[in-house]
Specification:
Layout lengths: L6 E2 L5 H10 L5 H11 L14 H10 E2 L4 E8 L3 E7 L5 E9 L2 E5 L3 E3 L14 E4 L2 H14 L8 E4 L9 H12 L11 E5 L3 H10 L4 E5 L5 H7 L8 H15 L3 E7 L7 H10 L5 E7 L13 H13 L3 E4 L16 E8 L2 E8 L5
Parallel strand pairs: 1-2, 6-9, 9-10, 10-11, 11-12, 12-13, 13-14
Antiparallel strand pairs: 3-4, 4-5, 5-6, 7-8, 15-16
Helix pairs in contact: 1-2, 4-5, 6-8, 9-10
Subcellular location: Cytoplasm
Enzyme class: transferase
Function: Specifically methylates position 2 of adenine 2503 in 23S rRNA and position 2 of adenine 37 in tRNAs.
């Protein structure tokens, strides 16, 4: 796919496509016809839209394209997890993950090429941030997952937990959520969409004002600033106190429980005292705590605690009345588990010598 500056249909709202139709001399109802072809019928080119005239199809193709990305490859594990590598117009590759658990089928999408957060358990930020994804590039991950589902399967949930910090790409992420949620778009209920953040306070407060009623998950990972800053360096500019205040604000405005992600790292944040401190920090808040033993990443030396230590940690939280879930490991066999998605430099040999190519091989948070 050659690099192009054209817009794709997936980048556009109903109002924007309606304006495009009007500019081309077509009635407003054509916009919903186009959107139905893309989001309901899975059209990938304008020629497939048979209720549009050939001339209109040609005019549309001159103005934009249906999709701007394509699936590069798919890797599957026997644990009902599949990894889709998505090729972008500029040669970059991103990744989304398909997770099956009974009738719950979830797409985990990326929001950036690389990541600037540099969390010390996550491979995604090892090579830094290359660029933000457009709204269309985010939405198309969902379309690729839907097209990959088996007969009779239906996508039920979307989580913004792939590579990148969603709230650092705020406008494109929110636009993509509106397209996913819209009746004319993918029609995914707000309560089935989750945005995960390492804690961009201004972004959380701004998201609350959108009143989208989507779920918010915050990567907490510690109950004090010293420990959290060791795990998540950007905490030095935020502070847990400000982060918890923003979480309260999100709950009060939206009425949606906030989830806190907590990676358990042996010798760092997994002691009995850590559990007691976390319970005190979240006292009185209507929230959920998702506990996950840290997954191995070659460049980091963190290790998970024992199963017994994990059980003790969770029991302490539960005794304080907190809702705790131990997340199942899914996808670690194909480097698609929590913290394992990365931009990896692979070496290729050519006439000009060794060429380093950035390539994605896993999942984020």
């Amino acid at each position: 796919m050659e690099k192009t500056e054209n817009h794709s249909i997936t980048d556009m709202s109903l109002a924007e496509i309606t304006a495009l139709c009007n500019n081309l001399g077509e009635p407003a109802y054509r916009a919903k016809q186009i959107l139905s072809w893309v989001y309901e019928k899975g059209a990938t080119i304008f020629d497939q839209m048979t209720n549009l005239s050939k001339n209109f199809q040609k005019q549309l193709a001159e103005q934009c394209q249906v999709l701007q990305t394509r699936v590069d490859s798919v890797t599957q594990t026997g644990y009902d997890t599949e990894k889709l590598l998505i090729h972008l117009y500029d040669g970059n590759i991103i990744e989304c993950v398909l997770l099956r658990e009974g009738k719950r089928i979830t797409a985990c999408v990326s929001t950036q090429v690389g990541c600037a957060m540099a969390c010390q358990f996550c491979a995604s930020g090892l090579l830094g941030l290359k660029r933000n994804l457009t709204a269309g590039e985010i939405v198309e991950q969902i379309l690729h997952v839907k097209n990959h589902l088996l007969s009779g399967e239906h996508l039920t949930n979307v989580v913004f937990m792939g590579i990148g910090e969603p709230l650092a790409n705020y406008d494109n992420v929110v636009k993509s959520v509106r397209i996913m949620n819209a009746e004319w778009g993918l029609g995914i209920g707000a309560r089935h969409i989750t945005i995960s953040t390492v804690g961009i306070v201004d972004g959380i407060r701004r998201l609350a004002q959108e009143r989208l009623k989507i779920n918010l998950a915050i990567s907490l990972h510690a109950s004090d600033d010293i420990t959290r800053s060791k795990i998540i360096p950007m905490n030095k500019n935020t502070g847990i106190k400000n982060l918890i205040a923003a979480a309260w604000e999100y709950f009060e405005i939206t009425g949606r429980d906030v989830s806190f992600e907590y990676i358990l790292i042996n010798g760092i944040n997994a002691s009995k005292q850590d559990a007691e401190s976390l319970a005190q920090l979240l006292k009185g808040m209507q929230c959920n705590i998702n506990v996950l033993p840290v997954n191995p990443v070659e460049e980091f030396h963190w290790r998970p605690p024992s199963e017994g230590a994990i059980e003790i940690f969770c029991n302490i939280l539960q005794k304080h009345g907190l809702v705790v879930t131990i997340r199942k490991k899914k996808g670690n066999h194909i480097n698609a588990a929590c913290g394992q998605l990365r931009l990896q430099k692979e070496k290729f040999h050519g006439k000009g010598g060794d060429i380093l190519l950035n390539k994605l091989v896993g999942k984020n948070k």
